[in-house]
Write a sequence for this structure.
């Protein structure tokens, strides 16, 4: 005896309800994707430009290590070339952030909870946030007003988040890290102006 298949077919209402649920689920999933993308940076407005995982150490700071310092760098490269170097697994270095000269645009290359290889000193790497600035130490024209201002806002946010004092004992140049063989940010970096801007941010 053949069964009446019409008894087992879903009603129009069931089909419409299923479609509505699928739409809601899809919207929720899209919202999750958007949230995941938004969470790819720690500083609002920064561009996510992830460094190769070969250029930093995954961690869980500040649980694994306290964050006590901000280290200021100058790239000695263009902004684009710096991001490309940080993506290169053979480079063996990366900073948390890179600030572009002409407009102060900020890219985040390493998440703050991870240990970026930027200071040339493991102890300082574990306890600092590294910020690179596009330019060359002997070309002060790269240190634009907007670069100083946007970098200072970033540093102020990092200091507020981790309770870092805004002073020259805790906001250091790469050259001031013990054992460093680098000279950045160099003689043309205006420290008095920078610290004032961080305090005003």
């Amino acid at each position: 005896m053949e069964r009446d298949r019409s008894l087992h077919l879903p009603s129009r209402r069931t089909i419409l309800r299923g479609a509505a649920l699928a739409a809601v689920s899809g919207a929720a999933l899209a919202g999750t994707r958007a949230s995941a993308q938004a969470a790819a940076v720690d500083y609002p407005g920064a561009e996510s430009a992830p460094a190769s995982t070969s250029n930093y150490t995954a961690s869980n700071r500040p649980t694994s290590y306290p964050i006590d310092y901000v280290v200021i760098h100058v790239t000695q490269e263009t902004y684009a070339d710096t991001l490309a170097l940080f993506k290169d697994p053979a480079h063996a270095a990366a900073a948390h952030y890179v600030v572009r000269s002409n407009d102060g645009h900020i890219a985040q290359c390493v998440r703050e909870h991870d240990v970026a290889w930027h200071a040339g000193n493991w102890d300082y790497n574990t306890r600092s946030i590294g910020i690179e600035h596009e330019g060359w130490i002997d070309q002060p024209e790269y240190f634009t007003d907007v670069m100083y201002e946007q970098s200072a806002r970033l540093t102020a946010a990092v200091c507020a988040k981790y309770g870092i004092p805004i002073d020259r004992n805790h906001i250091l140049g790469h050259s001031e890290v013990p054992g460093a063989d680098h000279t950045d940010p160099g003689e043309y970096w205006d420290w008095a102006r920078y610290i004032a801007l961080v305090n005003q941010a």
Notes: The CA atoms of residues 63 and 188 lie 36 Å apart.
